[in-house]
Amino acid sequence: MRRHRNVKIVATLGPASSTKEMIRQLFDAGADVFRLNMSHGSHDDHRARHAIIREIEAETGRPIAILADLQGPKLRVGPFADGAHDLTAGDKFRFDLDDAKGDANRVQLPHPEIFAALEAGSELLVNDGKIRLTVDSCGKDFADCTVTVGGTISDRKGVNVPDVVLPLAALSDKDRGDLEFACEMGVDWLALSFVQRAADVEEAKALAKGRAAVLSKIEKPAAVRAFDEILHASDGIMVARGDLGVELPVHSVPPIQKRLVRQCRAAAKPVIVATQMLESMIESPMPTRAEVSDVANAIYEGADAVMLSAESAAGDYPVEAVTTMDSVARSVEADANYRAIIEASRKAKLHSVADAIVTAAREIAETTDIAAICAFTQSGTTASLVARERPRVPILALSSEVGVARRLSLTWGTHCIISPRLTRFKEAVVNGTRAARDFGFADETRQVVVMAGVPFNVPGTTNILRIAPCDERLIYASDPE
């Protein structure tokens, strides 16, 4: 079960990766989390893939996280009478609510919410930002614009409005249906698109009712501005750089990515870096050097996970893409500079007993001959706090809650194990040392750090730590009761 790296790999499933044989190959190559993209495929497709993942989980004995990515509202222009028109910089162009087919001068934009939020000087982006227009004047049902960057505009192209907060909920009617379907099916994470404010996250969590953790996709400037509040409301974050690069100047995205990753780590919440990480591997068995550097930079920054989208969902080389990510991760984490960077970015967080315990566990592990840190966790908090420390030794996250173990599969450095339900700390010591031996993290000559909360089975009570030998004879000799 052991991955010889700490960063996790998220692989999106799709037409190229729907069979049990292929999904098992992706898992064996290094995928820790599987993403179901609700923008594509039917509920039956996703249900079949979900069932396959759970079969593989049962066969391997390793908890696997499943992430359902909700589509979010899609803002698109209407159709054109001739299919498409070329717009040139300096041209005048109107968007309106008229359902007549578009021409060289206007097209329908069937979203009154956009017109309600626009003002003179606002920018409209069409077709992933390839066409840019500035609003000259607007009303409740129109916007007269000047083209600033020209291009070909055609039927149903997407529209972005980067500099205003739109009066739109992050959840469309389709998303609400998909959310309920995903929760009933038993996914572990929900990725929420079109997040603009913390209230969007709170709405999704209210609908999820604790059945799945909610991860916010940061893909809009409004979300970057409100990130502190969004992070507080979320269980995890995805830095969706593709959409950010459309709505923000592309040169601003790398520093934003770096800042968001650090904030997530400080909050002990998992963060995925996503979009176009190995894009060329959709059609090529080898990545570009720039793509490898991009993946490596996310790992150096301390991201919990890196994600493959079309590379594994629809590409010609899905297994090779996962293998490449695994190889890059191992190489980066073996670099002495990686450890120096990770430790230099560590910030002390000593606001609670749990903070002090996990800090002590990491320091003990790094100054003595400790094979692993065994963190017993009921809610996932203890293991997440240990992961925040980015220790040099493996983290064994042991939980009697299957859902908790699965969700922790997204968190940096965690090797998740489903344990029996415990009532005494001595049972934790015995189970932790056995797990360390059984899964190849230690032999009987080594020691591990065991940490848990007493009383057991109460979330948020991390308060005890013990250095334990992996030889059970020594455990019983030192603690006969």
From TrEMBL:
<dbReference type="GO" id="GO:0016301">
    <property type="term" value="F:kinase activity"/>
</dbReference>
<keyword id="KW-0670">Pyruvate</keyword>
<feature type="domain" description="Pyruvate kinase C-terminal">
    <location>
        <begin position="355"/>
        <end position="467"/>
    </location>
</feature>
<dbReference type="GO" id="GO:0005524">
    <property type="term" value="F:ATP binding"/>
</dbReference>
<dbReference type="InterPro" id="IPR015795">
    <property type="entry name" value="Pyrv_Knase_C"/>
</dbReference>
<dbReference type="GO" id="GO:0030955">
    <property type="term" value="F:potassium ion binding"/>
</dbReference>
<dbReference type="InterPro" id="IPR015813">
    <property type="entry name" value="Pyrv/PenolPyrv_kinase-like_dom"/>
</dbReference>
<dbReference type="GO" id="GO:0004743">
    <property type="term" value="F:pyruvate kinase activity"/>
</dbReference>
<dbReference type="InterPro" id="IPR036918">
    <property type="entry name" value="Pyrv_Knase_C_sf"/>
</dbReference>
<keyword id="KW-0547">Nucleotide-binding</keyword>
<keyword id="KW-0324">Glycolysis</keyword>
<keyword id="KW-0067">ATP-binding</keyword>
<dbReference type="InterPro" id="IPR015806">
    <property type="entry name" value="Pyrv_Knase_insert_dom_sf"/>
</dbReference>
<keyword id="KW-0418">Kinase</keyword>
<comment type="similarity">
    <text>Belongs to the pyruvate kinase family.</text>
</comment>
<keyword id="KW-0460">Magnesium</keyword>
<keyword id="KW-0808">Transferase</keyword>
<comment type="pathway">
    <text>Carbohydrate degradation; glycolysis; pyruvate from D-glyceraldehyde 3-phosphate: step 5/5.</text>
</comment>
<dbReference type="Pfam" id="PF00224">
    <property type="entry name" value="PK"/>
</dbReference>
<dbReference type="InterPro" id="IPR011037">
    <property type="entry name" value="Pyrv_Knase-like_insert_dom_sf"/>
</dbReference>
<dbReference type="InterPro" id="IPR040442">
    <property type="entry name" value="Pyrv_kinase-like_dom_sf"/>
</dbReference>
<dbReference type="InterPro" id="IPR015793">
    <property type="entry name" value="Pyrv_Knase_brl"/>
</dbReference>
<dbReference type="GO" id="GO:0000287">
    <property type="term" value="F:magnesium ion binding"/>
</dbReference>
<keyword id="KW-0479">Metal-binding</keyword>
<dbReference type="InterPro" id="IPR001697">
    <property type="entry name" value="Pyr_Knase"/>
</dbReference>
<protein>
    <recommendedName>
        <fullName>Pyruvate kinase</fullName>
        <ecNumber>2.7.1.40</ecNumber>
    </recommendedName>
</protein>
<feature type="domain" description="Pyruvate kinase barrel">
    <location>
        <begin position="5"/>
        <end position="322"/>
    </location>
</feature>
<dbReference type="Pfam" id="PF02887">
    <property type="entry name" value="PK_C"/>
</dbReference>
